[in-house]
Specification:
This protein has 102 residues and is mainly α. It has a domain of 49 residues. It starts with 7 loop residues before the first helix and ends in an 8-residue tail after the last helix.
Length: 102
């Protein structure tokens, strides 16, 4: 297999697109994307972390406002996203990245 070198910014962009696609899916995609985000988080810059964290917060806000968590996928998918959101928050605070995206 040929190796492809991507910058942290490029990785963050691909992860953001992947997460946006996977939210609401009822497949293995949510857990795969969540795991990739956890693995790649350490090399991402502030901007990429902010976008991922903000987008996930916004999806939960949409679910809350609608009173319907189906925009997060099935119950197991919603749990995957909730776990990732908690994980992101903990990293955000630990890394001292400032105010939490709202």
């Amino acid at each position: 297999m040929r190796e492809v070198n991507l910058s942290p910014e490029e990785l963050g962009t691909i992860l953001a697109y992947s997460m946006r696609y996977a939210m609401g899916r009822m497949t293995f995609a949510p857990s795969e994307v969540a795991e990739l985000i956890r693995r790649i988080w350490p090399v991402l810059g502030y901007k990429q972390k902010f976008i991922l964290f903000r987008d996930l917060c916004e999806q939960f806000r949409r679910a809350w406002d609608a009173g319907d968590a189906r925009c997060l996928g099935m119950e197991c998918d919603a749990q995957t996203w909730a776990s990732l959101l908690i994980w992101m928050y903990a990293r955000w605070v630990k890394e001292g990245l400032g105010g939490v995206p709202s």
